[in-house]
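Page 47, continued from p. 46.
Same chain as before, 210 aa.
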Amino acid sequence: MTTDKPDLETAYALDTPDDSRRLYAEWAGDYDQTFAAREDYQLHIHTARAFVGAGGQGPVLDVGAGTGLCGAVLSDLGVGPIDATDISAEMLDQAMRKDIYRDAIEADLNEGIPVLPESYAGIVSSGTFTTGHVGPDAIDGLLRISRSGAQFALSINARHFDSAGFRAKFDALKKGKIHNLTLSETRIYGDLAAGEHKDDQALIVLFEKV
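Result:
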């Protein structure tokens, strides 16, 4: 464990899966209060609403579910059943306490998710595809476990969309693996946010598996 309290700057500086496990093990117990509420985090709301607006349905996998912020919005919007996956067992434990998920799957997206192919009609992810977390190659594994016609809604940090290879990845996937691709830019945080990241933007990427 570190001696410093987890915060947004620490999260943005993550380099490895083990770094992620250590940070979120420490942060899980008060993540909703010390990050989501304090920073006026809104991206999970935008992502869930975009998924539903595009016609997304369950069964859906909440990728990088954390403490269940996005899953809670999906559930309130009538989506279900919902499974949660995250690299952190501690974050998943907090998520399962909210009684919105059917199952919890501890997994590193970079190594794939241990579920059967074509398990899900929808894939949603808020705040996971960003610096220090997960890169574009993990999308291949998500396509493997989704059904033909599955609706995806993935938020991707706008600052890294080109430099981390996400745009190139989607350009390649459009050649026979996905269709109906749209990108919409949104703020990650609300009007109450402060600090240097208060105006950070994300792209919400909607598409369907062919």
